[in-house]
Amino acid sequence: MNNFDEITEVVRKNNNFLITSHINLDGDGIGSELALYFILKKLNKNPIILNQSRLPGVYNFLPGSNKVHYLEDNCIDTKSINVGIVLDCSNVERIGKTYEIFKDIKTIINIDHHKSNENFGSLNYIDCSASSVGEILYELIKSINLDLIDEKISTCLFTAILTDTGSFRYSNVSSKTFEIASYLTSKGIKPSLIANNIYNRKTYPGLKLLGEALLTLEVNESNYVSWITITRKMLNDAKANDGEIEGIIDFATTLNNVEVSILFRETKDNKIKVSFRSKGNFDVNKFAGKFEGGGHPNAAGCLCSGKLDEIKEKILSLIFSDIKYQE
Ligand code: AMP
Ligand code: MN
Ligand code: MN
Prior knowledge:
It is a single chain. The protein is an alpha/beta fold. The protein has helices at 4-13, 27-42, 99-102, 133-144, 151-164, 175-185, 191-199, 204-215, 232-238, 248-253, 284-289, 308-326; strands at 16-20, 46-51, 69-70, 83-87, 107-112, 123-126, 218-219, 225-230, 260-266, 272-278, 294-295, 299-304. The strands form 2 sheets. It has a 6-stranded parallel β-sheet with strand order 3-2-1-4-5-6, covered by helices on one side. Strands 7-8-9-10-12-11 form a 6-stranded mixed β-sheet. β1, α2 and β2 form a beta-alpha-beta unit. α2 packs parallel to α4, α2 runs antiparallel to α5 (151-164) and α4 packs antiparallel against α5 (151-164). The chain is globular. One manganese (II) ion binds next to loops.
């Protein structure tokens, strides 16, 4: 693994940077992209953010959210890019179609906190003990000059940390996480304002979808596994969009005694996306790896091809036997 000085050296020597993160962008992905964008600007560099996925509406309050580019904009002069920076992605497939552009960039910096990271960069900085890439970027900035952090950058980093820790509830929270959050708060941000923007601006279709999704909730006999299913028909009937599925799995996790919760959902392109959350020792990153997915020990996912019912049956029977084996 490389250190911060090696990364800073590459930043110092180059001018044009392309930043990206994973498909189905989340708060850590967008918050980290924007924080890095503003830092590079302050260092007199030319950063561009390029994503496959449109920004989920809840993040449009973030400073710079209107500066994100998408592939279909066709606006990137790829030849001028010196360095690609990939954030919060365990492998290059996770960046989706933007790989078409990143594959031609000579120098790739890979900054991530996933245990399953494949070290695909020319430079790699992976810290699995960090709650979020936001936390790693804070440390990176600290190694340059902490005074670079202003209110805008604080807002972006705080959003990254807040969302990836489930509002400071997950097992990835450490005393360092709170120290960083405290420093960011001292820069004039209002945590309650950020939380309101992210969690209290649900749409009516989004809440209707939550209601329909909860009606599908099932648990196994021992109450250790709970699961929710969301079909395209449910999304269409509620007039909700895919971004509004974010957070629904957390309701399945809140059930008393549940160790693992699962969300099965049909994607726009006829695949089945499966999300896993674990409250205890069951390592869902390892389990998702059986289906070419990954993530963290307590939050992971995979993308499957096939019929919804068949995939559900396969995954559920495997998880029941794995949990039994663990007992
Ligand atoms: P999600 O269920 O999409 O919220 O993802 C939970 C965690 O697992 C996040 O850290 C994702 O980056 C990771 N993850 C989700 N799907 C995949 C996948 N197909 N491959 C690798 N990591 C994934
Ligand atoms: Mn992420
Ligand atoms: Mn993350």
